[in-house]
User: Fold this.
Amino acid sequence: AQSVAQPEDQVNVAEGNPLTVKCTYSVSGNPYLFWYVQYPNRGLQFLLKYITGDNLVKGSYGFEAEFNKSQTSFHLKKPSALVSDSALYFCAVRDLTGFQKLVFGTGTRLLVSP
Amino acid sequence: SQTIHQWPATLVQPVGSPLSLECTVEGTSNPNLYWYRQAAGRGLQLLFYSVGIGQISSEVPQNLSASRPQDRQFILSSKKLLLSDSGFYLCAWSVQAGVSYEQYFGPGTRLTVT
Assistant:
């Protein structure tokens, strides 16, 4: 079965510093991977996706993610964190069980301090 | 452009009362539709999904039901609410037979069962 793991419940970073939110995946075929962000009491917003091609994917709000097949990882990164980046981040992978479903990770809370 | 609406935004209901949450999508036709529940501001649980009018698949047996009376309308219902039904309910849509599977989420409904 397809799955993703987000090993950190919370990541703390100072404003202006680079940030990384980790995600590892387990799939039986080619992975389709996604990152979403959720602000308090809001729905999830799509940030970026990896389907095929360049391992470095650029998305919204200055975020990017690096697909690493050998390490089965898809970490979310940003060169310079903003306080407004503080939110809950979800990694997801396409479910291959016959319908267009996504399997979500448990989420990582990012806290950017001023 | 496509937009997704959910209402109400918040709801407080007593145990044993009925429930009806509505989701509508604009700007697309024949979308896949999904209902998720998010408990304690964390992980997402897929409750139902639909590929077309009247076609509902349930992921988890529970006190809830879903219906799709129109192409872009998805309703989540219950005849008698339980305390455990409290949570943040999210509706999402994706392109039917899309290539990459990303889903787009509505703003959510916060349900508190008292």
